[in-house]
Design a protein that fits this description.
Helix content is about 45%, strand content about 15%. By secondary structure, it is of the alpha/beta class. Bound molecules: 5-amino-5-deoxy-1-O-phosphono-D-mannitol. The site of 5-amino-5-deoxy-1-O-phosphono-D-mannitol has 16 residues, from helix 4. It is an enzyme of class 2 (transferase). Its main location: cytoplasm. One of its GO terms (molecular function) is carbohydrate derivative binding.
Length: about 375
């Protein structure tokens, strides 16, 4: 039941510290990731893995896009990520040693399942499903699986399923790296252990985010900006907003602004940006100046340390410091809350948005 919460979506957003902990349980120690979490054959399979293809739909696809940054940076493995409905109608070329990974909350998404069945004819080194539903079709038909342990997700808008997928993908990154004989990454492991409590802190910003949401109630469009692994987080923020509040939202990698979308920016356009403290921060800051110069209204979720201060045309919400690898997880939360509060203000059916189904079992 929803308990004290007004909607399932809000309940599920607030469950994230707990389910993230569950997703990590027994899968790592302070100094090491447990490769066997992915099954008895995982070690041998990951050892042979030279590249990874990730296939999914919707929010799960966005998790895959984040994983590309992680697998390339921390495991040194090239990655392609694609939506299932495109992949399955292409003629993919599969280099030797390629691991096929599907991501799905339900494990029953028609296109993702069809993509897996197709992939099995293409000579992959193995197939892995990262999924929230044990015994689902995707899990049954894959060589290996890892459960995300988010528990039942009732709201159509995916929230805790997404963040636990990210946890699973980070465990995958560390496991592939370890299986390939690369050194363990103690800072990331420590960061993972600290993550549930950091998430709890960020959820404490709820009232401030609710106040911020007022500015969106009358808006018809919104632009989300991010760089690097936070570009997919911007995509996910935009999807959440359009899905439940019916406000048209688009996400761009901040560096693409000048190549078109800047033409849309005026005083009517809210621009939401995630600004963690990473190597791309300075570049992002100059993109934000471009928005300000056009009169755009900026909403920035930023690391406490980055020194973006609130001004008349910039509203800033500060997030706690976090290891760079884990920032995409943490910065997802305020965007979920923002879209939730905007939808509530607009009076939409938050848990059951129009035209959408929780599980898309037809193509
Ligand atoms: O069950 P799946 O993860 O395979 O579902 C994929 C998408 O249908 C799903 O993520 C959808 O985009 C959500 N409604 C987004 O909130």
């Amino acid at each position: 039941s929803k308990g004290e919460y007004r909607h399932y979506m809000l309940k599920e957003i607030f469950e994230q510290p707990k389910v993230i902990e569950a997703a990590l349980e027994g899968r790592m120690s302070a100094s090491s990731v447990l490769v066997e979490s992915f099954g008895p054959d995982a070690q041998a399979l990951f050892q042979k893995t030279r590249q990874v293809h990730i296939i999914a739909c919707g929010t799960s696809y966005h998790a895959g896009l984040v994983a590309r940054y992680w697998l390339e940076r921390y495991a040194g493995v090239p990655v392609q990520v694609e939506v299932a409905s495109e992949y399955r109608y292409r003629h993919p070329v599969v280099p030797e040693g390629t691991l096929f990974v599907t991501l799905s909350q339900s494990g029953e998404t028609a296109d993702t399942l069809a993509a897996l069945r197709f992939a099995k004819t293409l000579g992959y080194v193995g197939t892995l499903a990262i999924c929230n539903v044990p015994g689902s079709s995707l899990v049954r038909e894959s060589d290996m699986s890892l459960m995300t342990r988010a528990g039942p997700e009732i709201g159509v808008a995916s929230t805790k399923a997404f963040t636990t997928q990210l946890i699973a993908l980070l465990l995958l990154t560390l496991s592939v790296s370890k299986a390939k004989g690369q050194p363990e990454q103690p800072e990331i492991l420590a960061g993972l252990q600290a993550l549930p409590s950091l998430c709890q802190q960020v959820l404490g910003l709820d009232a401030q985010i609710e106040a911020l949401s007022q500015a969106f109630a009358e808006k018809h469009h919104a632009l989300f900006l991010g760089r690097g692994a936070h570009y997919p987080i911007a995509l996910e923020g935009a999807l959440k907003l359009k899905e439940i509040s019916y406000i048209h939202a688009e996400a761009y990698p901040a560096g693409e602004l000048k190549h078109g979308p800047l033409a849309l920016v005026d005083s009517e356009m809210p621009v939401i940006s995630v600004a963690p403290n990473d190597e791309l921060l300075e570049k992002l800051k100059s993109n934000l100046q471009e928005v300000r110069a056009r009169g755009g209204q900026l909403f920035v979720f930023a690391d406490r340390k980055v020194g973006i201060s609130a001004q008349e045309d910039i509203r800033v919400l500060e997030l706690p410091e976090v290891h760079e690898a884990l920032a995409p997880l943490l910065y997802t939360l305020p965007l979920q809350l923002l879209s939730y509060h905007v939808a509530v203000l607009k009076g939409t059916d938050v848990d059951q948005p129009r035209n959408l189904a929780k599980s898309v079992t037809v193509e």
